[in-house]
Amino acid sequence: MTGRLVIVGAGQAGFALAAKLRALKDTRPITMIGLEDVFPYQRPPLSKKYLLGEMSFDRLTFRPDAWFAENDVEVRLSTFVEEIDRDKKTVRMQDGSVLEYENLALATGSTPRTLPASIGGDLEGVYTVRDKRDADRLAGEMKAGRRLLIIGGGYIGLEAAAVARHLGLEVTLIEMADRILARVAAKETADIMRGIHDAHGVVIREKTGLARLIGEDGKVRAAELSDGSVIDVDVVIVGIGVTPNDRLAQDCGLDVGNGIVVDEFARTSDPSIFAMGDCVTLPWQGGRIRLESVQNAVDQAESVAATLAGGTAPYEPKPWFWSDQYDVKLQIAGFNLGYEETLLRPGAREGAVSIWYFREGRLIAVDAVNDAKAYVSGKKMLETGKNPDKALLADPATDLKQLMA
Ligand code: FAD
Question: Which CATH superfamily is domain 5-111+242-308 in?
């Protein structure tokens, strides 16, 4: 009989692995262990429609709870895996119980960075957004007229700003770097998104860090910024990035370095243990990257399922990402790492625009703002290796289909 697969982490990647194995008619015993008290669900709406109150939790879950028993996937919720014993091939839970595995898959995700308590990070009213519980607690604070400070101008911070303005809060967003989205997007994309937030009344202060949060009776009341100014605040959202949950792997001696080190089959340095999703560092064009996206979590997990079921194809990431802010849909295809040149292409409809990234003269990524056509065409060009003529691409009169031919 095929031995048990134990999946640590009942999130996007953990679920995708179990679901794909069953879709491939693989009948091995599967146990999925998750720290949260709910069955697996998608996180993106937590900083979008769910936080806004426009989407209920049952629309977030991937499958009805009954699906897991019906498909013979044992799920242990509210359970933390504390230790892996690679010699005995067992995992130990925090309640002391032990479970044997033949294969283990680590899908432990990542944890938002927090502010140190020494600068007020532990005050009441200071939030990060990673799971349902965070979003539920934060939603209770999102009341019209309250003053919200967002620390960090990445996607989660900007999405939360959009939700907060919609709900009538006063929003200030500070970003320590020269500009918002500095880590993930080009200046052109940042300029467009900043303009949209300006128009919606968000005060964005770039090159501005946080000196400290000031509390009263344990609750946040004000923030002193790096330029010495002090602003009154009622609520704070910290969106300053995440760190991979690789501790469990490190403690049992697996190779780890800013994420669990895996090969192109998502195998760790122990061949019986796989890892996938936000918690890994994976091979990419001769180097290593971490990808924090639904696309990567799902595709990497599905490739692990295929490998377990006897497949031999390596995982080749085809990155894509999206962000919803107000009525703006930003869609991203490719990975802009190391870009040297960008090109801005106005779209056919008002407000539609795309930014194309090139490295060594080759297209590597595209950001499309309210421009589904540019996104679909760019994605296709990246998949087929088609390099568009830049002069033609920059000309809005050029039909993108012509560039794909
Ligand atoms: P997760 O889905 O985080 O699952 C990991 C699970 O493992 C968690 O439930 C955790 O509690 C559990 N766990 C960890 N350690 C243990 C342990 N030792 N024992 C038991 N359980 C454990 N991506 C996009 O592509 N587009 C978006 O628009 C987008 N928006 C996002 C908005 C928010 C607010 C957040 C938080 C993320 C967003 N993402 C988005 C990122 C995307 O959700 C993640 O990349 C994806 O969830 C990663 O999947 P994962 O399975 O690796 O981790």
Answer: FAD/NAD(P)-binding domain (3.50.50.60)
